[in-house]
UniProtKB/TrEMBL annotation:
InterPro entries membership: DUF5675
Protein name stated in the entry: DUF5675 domain-containing protein
Top-level taxonomic group: Bacteria
UniProt domain DUF5675: residue ranges: 5-116
């Protein structure tokens, strides 16, 4: 399974459209591009493997692996990139403005159901990031 995240960059935040096999899944929000600097930037465009991960804070979520110069890049719930993200990606149901969305919980549940189903069928899961 390959998820495609097509992004639009803005100085106040990065917004994206996430799809799987040409079908819309949800929108996304991230921090602005700041040269891949840890904690303050979205990650570079490319193709990355995804894995299920559990933590006390986020419970079950997804981890983007093998990001050059970065670690612990997660896909987790958030509605405001500047206030809630430190380089991670948040699925949202609606985009309000760059880096800000609504109903992240709904989008996150939809995304997790899709990816978890594929992983349970022993499919590999990949995330491809491109410019919109």
């Amino acid at each position: 399974m390959e998820l495609l995240l097509e992004r639009e960059y803005d100085s106040s935040g990065t917004s994206g459209i996430l799809s799987c096999e040409e079908r819309f899944v949800c929108f996304t929000i991230e921090l602005p591009w700041r040269d891949n600097k840890r904690m303050i930037s979205c990650i570079p465009e490319g193709r990355y493997p995804l894995a299920l991960r559990y933590s006390e804070r986020h419970r079950w979520h997804l981890q983007v692996q093998n990001v050059p110069g970065r670690s612990l890049i997660l896909l987790h719930k958030a509605n405001n990139a500047a206030k809630e993200l430190k380089g991670c990606i948040a699925p949202v149901s609606e985009l309000v403005r760059p880096g800000v969305g609504k109903r992240s919980n709904d989008a996150f549940c939809k995304l997790m159901q899709l990816v978890k189903g594929g992983l349970e069928r022993r499919e590999e899961a990949w995330l491809r990031l491109t410019k919109l």
